[in-house]
Amino acid sequence: LFAQETDFLKGVVAMDGMPPADRLEVCxxxxxxxxxxxLINALTGRKSLARTSNxxxxxxxxxxxxxxxxxYLVDVPGYGFANAPLPVVKKWQALLKxxxxxxxxxxxxxxxxxxxxxxxxxxxxxxxxLGKSAVTFQVVLTKSDKPKKGELDKIITKTKEVVSKYPAAxxxxxxxxSEKGDGIATLRNTIRTLV
Length: 195
Ligand code: GTP
Ligand code: MG
Hints:
The protein is of the alpha/beta class. Helix content is about 35%, strand content about 20%.
């Protein structure tokens, strides 16, 4: 379902540019620089399908990738700090919120959280927004190659505590490293069962 079967379809800057909501899709959302685009590349096994960068604010459009012609994977701009002018960032954020709360075919949001930092206030805003729109989200703790074991255990406990307040949350987390490949097969399997 993944490697040979994914392709870039289009980047969208306004709701009316979206492809028709005629097939199920999953989206990867999270703070700027958390590793959304890298995760899409790891999932598809294609190193530069989605553009990545060390600079927060790399992804500036809602990018649709076709999965096996029958589904979409969706990469979105990050929220929180971005290395771009404020009015521009505000425009992406408005588009992101409109997308997350108004897309009929959105099956699940993978909400990416950095495994070194845990959830922040902006993540909770998105969790609440998804609850209002009745869209399920599942937490993916990214960059699992970075924290030490003890540090990671604390972050997992804290994340569970925060997430349990939000009814839109899917209870299981997935721990991933796009660098080392950890958790990628699990995430692929999860997506397979969803779409
Ligand atoms: P925006 O589009 O700016 O919101 O960022 P993004 O969430 O798409 O992040 P991106 O995939 O561009 O990755 C940001 C940085 O984190 C890059 O320098 C990546 O190489 C790095 N990175 C992403 N995933 C991992 C990971 O699993 N492990 C490590 N060590 N670094 C990672
Ligand atoms: Mg990106």
